[in-house]
Backbone:
């Protein structure tokens, strides 16, 4: 008798968990206000942190059910920062663009960082250590 009661309680518990999970998934797929986040990252020799920053933005996009646009403005990095960006270009949830500041003109930089009116722009200058705290899941 007690074992049957345990199975019944387990079934109700699993059903409640399933309902909450599906409700959360359905809420995340609805567009909130139609605005897309656009992170503009300014880098210089950030190979040790760049992968973590991009993965944090990808996780944020996946968990929130939104797409995030990331533009990386690189200031002539001497390390593998650009190689890491190229490798993570196909990461789920983010639209990644890399621009080297030394090889392009001011018009190209403005065009890449401009975006549209439907975007919420977040400027993060990674050359300043405290600025990285603007990226979700990154604590400085």
Residues:
């Amino acid at each position: 008798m007690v074992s049957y009661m345990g199975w019944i309680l387990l079934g109700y518990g699993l059903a409640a968990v399933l309902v909450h999970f599906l409700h959360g998934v359905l809420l995340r797929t609805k567009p909130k206000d139609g605005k897309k986040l656009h992170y503009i990252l300014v880098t210089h020799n950030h190979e040790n942190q760049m992968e973590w920053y991009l993965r944090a933005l990808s996780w944020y996009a996946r968990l929130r059910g939104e797409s995030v646009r990331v533009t990386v403005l690189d200031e002539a990095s001497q390390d593998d920062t650009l190689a890491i960006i190229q490798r993570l270009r196909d990461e789920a949830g983010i639209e990644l663009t890399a621009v080297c500041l030394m090889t392009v003109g001011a018009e190209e930089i403005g065009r890449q960082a401009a975006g549209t009116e439907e975007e919420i722009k977040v400027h993060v200058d990674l050359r300043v250590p405290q600025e990285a705290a603007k990226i979700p899941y990154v604590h400085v």
